[in-house]
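Ticket #4471: complex job returned nothing on first submit. Input attached below:
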Amino acid sequence: MYMKQKYRGKKLFLFFLIMGLSLFYGEFYGKSLPIEQAQLIIVIDFNDFMCFSCLDSFVEFCHSLPFHSKDGKVCGVLIVNDADETDLSFKIVEKKLRGFVSANDIKFPVLVDYLHIFNTLAEDGTVIILFNYQEKCIKKYLFPLKREQKADILSALKD
Amino acid sequence: MRKGKICMGILFLGVLFCSRLQFIQAEEVRQVSFEEVLSIGNLDDNILFQWAGIAVDSQNYIYVTDAMDYCLKKFDCQGKLQKKVGRKGQGPGEFLAPRLLDCSRAYIYVTDQYIPGFQVFNKDLKFQHRIPLRMLINDFKVISDSEIAVAAVTSDQGCRIVLINTKGEVIRKFRYSEKNSSLMMNWIDFDFDSMKNLYIAYNFQDKIVKFDSQGKELWSHSLMKMKHVKKKKIGSFVIPCEIIYKDIAVDSTGKVYVLSGEFSKNPSRDVYILDPEGKQKAVLTLPEGSHCIYIDGSDFLYSRAGDGITLKKYRIVDSERQAESMNK
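Support reply: We reran it on our side without changes. The output follows.
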């Protein structure tokens, strides 16, 4: 009897801990990472936007995305030149990004790739990496996008 | 024996002459200092994101195009933003890539990299009209509200500055070089002095030329002693990939300021100062690289800092000019 009472508190603690954890992870994985749905990473290189058709194709594509940024399906990554790695140059890039996002009305989050993780992916220019879980494949698209490429991406996102 | 002595003497005199020559040159090409009088745009504000073109009117208002947010902006002489207009688009008052600008007494003329011609705004930045032009514009200067000089990029690679009216009609053509060059090799920046003399700096050739108002070549100089620039093939085109001179501007006293490209000691920072005869008098080294320089009516120099998020205005401190005025 005494032993039962002694461990009752601990059992209750463990019960609530497990319930809490399962609820937390259920919420987290269930909503933010819906692995059955496609996801996009757009790797952006500002140098490409000297080419008008690339910039136009990029902005047009961003505006055609049919969902809100909170869906977490799309994320942008801005690559930076690895020749200039001072704090000041990073801050300058952040400011330019702020202006670019605001002026072009881009709704999804864009991060600056300070560690150059994505530089090799964008060697040929600004690209879209599509994670298509239904088709179990990862695809890469270069800007400017062709009409059928754009349709492919948008349909994967809608599915 | 005697011949040997003569040879030694000549050699000695030669060495003496050369060192004297070097001394004279070193004495004459001096470093000019400057002081910052205004800075517009910093890391935290949202005033400038990547400014491209600048012009200052007679009332010292500063007009700037910003390529990152597709805007034309007006600042007062304290650097306070008075107004901004524009957004991405091709309609009236909209831009795809706003670039160069210049102003007359009443209007601001703005070019766009992807839209041929000019957009004309009044001093309140209210869109007025477009001036159609089929040619791409490499540089331009507003002479008056009825005349604009344009260095145009033409399909035949002809080396011409055309004078157009407000309807975009060509009034006069001026050929600044007799030989047609390969792609981009005849691209220039230019400016006029108060006597309407024309100064040209080639972007991809080591050549600075002065013409009088009648079109007669007065002098031509090379500051970098460059013969060729590297070229690369893009598709079927071969284009130069190293810029020699980025910009040229003339102040009210007729001094010529030439912004260096990639071949000077401090690339994109050294500004060579020539007298009206083309003799190099001084060098001014900007604190940061710039894509252009601009000199306003009061001889203040404007350049880029922070990769385009900041516009700097400098007073040029010319010791020679100060000494002259002291003597007077």
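The beta strands of chain A are 39-44, 74-79, 110-113, 127-132, 137-142. Closing as resolved unless it happens again.
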